[in-house]
Amino acid sequence: MNDYELSDYLAAKKSLTSTLHKIEQAILSLEEKQAVGRNMKAQITLSRERVKALKLSLALIDREINELS
């Protein structure tokens, strides 16, 4: 693995946390559209998988931050 500094991990965490929040908000919007009859199932599924991936990435970043602190 590359050698990153603490500041790199903190910046990545900030960026990914922001993206995670935006995707979670998008899921709510997609679910509302699904509720009124539009077929948004694929987009909802994709977004939920992205949320899982981001949460995993954030957990790994937190692990690295703890090791560097």
- The Cα radius of gyration reads 16 Å
Give the CA-based shape.
Answer: elongated
Q: Termini, distance in Å?
A: 18 Å
Q: What's the number of extended β-strand segments?
A: 0
Structural summary, described in words:
With 69 residues, the chain is an all-alpha fold. It has one domain (6-68). It has two helices and no strands.
Summarize this entry quickly:
The chain is an all-alpha fold and 69 residues long. Helix content is 84%, strand content 0%.
Provide the fold topology.
Blueprint: H1 6-35, H2 41-68
Descriptive keywords:
69 residues; mainly alpha
